[in-house]
Amino acid sequence: MPAEIIDGIAIAAKVRARVAEDTAALKKRGVTPGLTAVLVGEDPASSVYVASKERACKEAGMNGRSIRLPASTTEEALLAVIDTLNNDPTVHGILVQMPVPKQISEQKVIRRIAQQKDVDGFHPFNVGKVFTGDVDGFAPCTPAGVQVMLAEAGVETSGKDAVIIGRSNIVGKPMAALLLQSGKTANCTVTLCHSKTRDLASHTRRADILIAAIGKPEMVTADMVKPGAVVIDVGINRVEDPSAPKGYRIVGDVHFESVREVASKISPVPGGVGRMTIAMLLANTVRAAQLTLEG
Ligand code: NAD
Fold first, then answer.
1. Cβ neighbours of residue 13 under 8 Å, at least 6 residues apart?
2. CB 263 within 8 A of CB 226
């Protein structure tokens, strides 16, 4: 029987509805959650991401704003913008769209954002909190979204073997940290694989929960998956397809059609994890606003 689909669109809609409710409650208390995205340069994909984050904020009743700076912006000038936002009480969440132009240090930018406004969860303080299981921290949106998807899909995680492919700071490593903690939708035995892992399939075939965050189109094939495993596909890859209206289509890191025949549950691409990332960004921003009231 083909795997059950874990519907990221429906789960993200649920998260966003909850965010809208929390926003309405905060507004009654005189606080409108606000997210400001900063974009340096004119990268078309980044521009689309920033516009969709702004729109999603507005749909949830939040203040969504973007600051667009020229590609020639100096590091000093960008840090000054961050300082202004750090000091602005109407801004609860700040994100700087990555990548930034070469003259700017990504790490300096991440470290400059006030940790209580770091809704991307990239500041070393928040990274540390996520690794130590401190629930006060902001978890990066994509792995946090995967965790919510597992919970909403009713996946039992406790004691299960979770294998993650990809060790990036924004997906793989924090995903491992989240699933490793004690607590809800966690308690996994985690294996983190990467480009230097020997015999990748020997690890993935042991996975009760397999999470692919590689950036290689359809790399995970059915023979790499244990029958009955839950498979979450984080990958977003553009592949040429002359028959598609745009000349390309979007696929994940998992070969969906074959893996679907082996897995018990699977998230599709598109319509899976991608939808969760923005929803979790909104959720983190609302929480940042709530925390200002709690002092
Ligand atoms: P990245 O390029 O930073 O990391 C890729 C990881 O894959 C690396 O750690 C590398 O070691 C590993 N890897 C590469 N080749 C491998 C191989 N042959 N075997 C095993 N491991 C291998 O990528 P990232 O930022 O973590 O993103 C991963 C994918 O997820 C991309 O397709 C990206 O577009 C997508 N992504 C999606 C969302 C979302 O919202 N759905 C968010 C972030 C990233």
1. 279
2. no
Report whether pLDDT(7) > 90.
yes
Residue range 234-278, pLDDT digits in tens:
999 999 999 999 999 999 999 999 999 999 999 999 999 999 999
Q: Is the pLDDT of residue 182 over 80?
A: yes
Cβ(235) – ligand 1 distance below 6 Å: yes
| Active site amino acids | 53, 97, 120
Q: Which of 52, 194, 276, 281 to mutate to test the pocket of ligand 1 (most atoms within 8 A of CB)?
A: 194
DSSP string of 193-244, one letter each residue: E-TT-SSHHHHHTT-SEEEE---STT-B-GGGS-TT-EEEE---EEEE-TTS
Query: What domains can be seen in the chain, in order of their start residue?
Result: 30-114 (3.40.50.10860), 140-275 (3.40.50.720)
Residue 249 is given by DSSP the state E
Amino acid at 161: D
| pLDDT at 295 > cutoff 80 | no
pLDDT at 135: 87
Say how far apart CA 96 and CA 122 lie, in whole Å.
10
